[in-house]
Design brief:
5 helices
Length: 179
Amino acid sequence: MIDIREQLAHDLLGCSYGELSGQKKSVIDLIADQRPTDVSGTLKDSTWWERLADSVARVGGSWSFIIGFSSALAIWIASNVVLAASGRAFDPFPFIFLNLILSMVAALQAPVIMMSQNRQSAKDRAAAEHDYIVNLRAELEIMLLHDKLDSLRDQDTMGRLDVLGQKIDDLTKDLAGRA
């Protein structure tokens, strides 16, 4: 007896089950087992550090951060300029301490943003793979439905032809009886 997976692979994709890629095998398995496509295994839960990286990237790329950070820089520079007149500036004109802080923020923020982008890229790849599986499955299921409809239409046509043949025979007998 032919395995249902082998039969589906041959009927729908024109090759044996063993020749299929992993994704196509999983789609054939889903169809054979009549299971819904599951997204939970594709998109895993994130760790605390990954969520932190996403939050830093989200905040660092917002207008509120840009406006707030620009305001803090303006206050820092203005307060040092005003305090420099009385000789009490905590970071006089070349603003070396401010440059150090900005360099440290950039050095820490850049890798965190890159981690978040890498994670988003992995999520996008997983979502694209899931979409491919869902689309392939839908296409194969539609092909199965077309085959079933064709079969039903053929059965209906054969039934109608049998009825018409019977009516023709009856009419032929009627005509032969009248002559």
